[in-house]
Design brief:
The structure is a single chain. The protein is mostly beta strands. The protein has a single domain, classed as Porin (Beta Barrel), CATH 2.40.160. Helix content is 2%, strand content 48%. The chain contains 1 helix and 19 strands. It has a 12-stranded antiparallel barrel with strand order 4-5-6-7-8-9-10-13-14-15-16-19. Strand 6 and strand 7 form a beta hairpin.
Length: 324
């Protein structure tokens, strides 16, 4: 068995083939007056799409189905402190090493949101885009559906090529289909299957003696996961948020942990402030799904050491909107 670090994979352009069509059949009945000589029918009012399923493009660490109106410019500040379990030693994570992401998004055309951001960890630059495919409309579409994609580039210095041998190894990708429904004026629910891809993995390869086939023994290049999110409005400007991310792909080792997060959202016409606790800290969707070592419950294996769950951290998101 020969260890190979950062085995390069060929360039892959990922496409999420996850679209699931929901068609709602509705029977139309027309009343007719038997005593009338002629029947008049009024044209039904045109159904309007549901608005404000979510107030922000973010629900903690995940994107929502929302795409702002055309001409909207948004700035994001995202911050994650350290885990709270050390208590007063690092003041419940506030004085521990933190992670920060700064991002800017713009809606150049209707239904399309594009953005760029940089994250403190690994000096990770990302480009992202989200397109609204379907908007929930009474009598037509029971849900809203959006597609989200992200490509990230690790820009850390690597003068002796110990981290990366090829430039392509610095890239990672994320594709997600977001399906949401505004159940009532207060409750919105969302489910979002995703696939994350890393161009470089750390692991072991071995050759099968009988077939000569090379078999990968550690992490895989592709990782499937699913996220469940919900928001409940407590007042016109305050909401309760909850989110759960479940890994699906099983790796030979270094299996990522699920994420459980919950908190509050405070909104104005142009601001959104989210304060919460959760397990994700990497501020990149593909890295959160691939490499989360903070466990919400049970035990997890971190570098060969069994660590008890309950590894929550405090975080916040601030978004500011301008419309041009």
């Amino acid at each position: 068995m020969k260890p190979i670090i950062n085995k390069p994979n060929r360039w892959i352009t990922l496409s999420a083939a996850l679209v699931s069509c929901l068609i709602l059949f509705q029977e139309n009945s027309f009343a007719q007056d038997s005593t009338a000589v002629t029947t008049e029918t009024e044209a039904p009012a045109k159904a309007k799409p549901v608005r404000n399923t979510f107030q922000s493009i973010w629900i903690i660490d995940n994107q929502t189905v929302m795409v702002p109106v055309k001409g909207t410019l948004e700035m994001d500040i995202m911050h994650r402190f350290g885990v709270v379990k050390n208590g007063f030693q690092d003041f419940w994570g506030f004085f521990a090493p933190s992670n920060i992401r700064l991002g800017v998004n713009y809606v150049p055309i209707k239904k399309l949101n594009v953005g760029i951001g940089i994250t403190k960890a690994s000096l990770l630059w990302d480009l992202n885009a989200k397109y609204s495919i379907i908007t929930q409309t009474k009598g037509k579409w029971p849900v809203s559906v959006s597609y989200y994609a992200d490509v990230a580039h690790d820009t850390r210095k690597d003068p002796d090529n110990t981290l990366f041998k090829y430039q392509s190894q610095r890239f990672s990708f994320f594709n997600q289909l977001i399906i949401a429904r505004k159940v009532t004026n207060k409750l919105s629910l969302q489910v979002a299957p995703s696939i994350s891809h890393q161009n470089s993995v750390n692991g072991y390869y071995t050759k099968n003696d009988s077939t000569g086939q090379v078999i990968f023994k550690n992490m895989k290049f592709d990782h499937f996961a699913i996220a469940f999110s919900g928001r409940y409005k407590l007042t016109t400007v305050t909401s309760l948020m909850i989110n759960y991310d479940q890994p699906i792909t099983k790796h030979a080792s270094q299996n990522p942990n699920p994420n459980l997060s919950f908190g509050f959202e405070f909104n104005t016409s142009s601001h959104s402030f989210q304060l919460f606790m959760g397990n994700y800290s990497l501020l990149s969707p593909q890295r959160n799904n691939l490499f989360n070592t903070n466990a919400p419950f049970g035990y997890t294996d971190v570098n060969g050491v069994k660590v008890k769950g309950g590894q929550f951290l405090i975080g916040f998101n601030i978004t500011r909107l301008w419309n041009y």
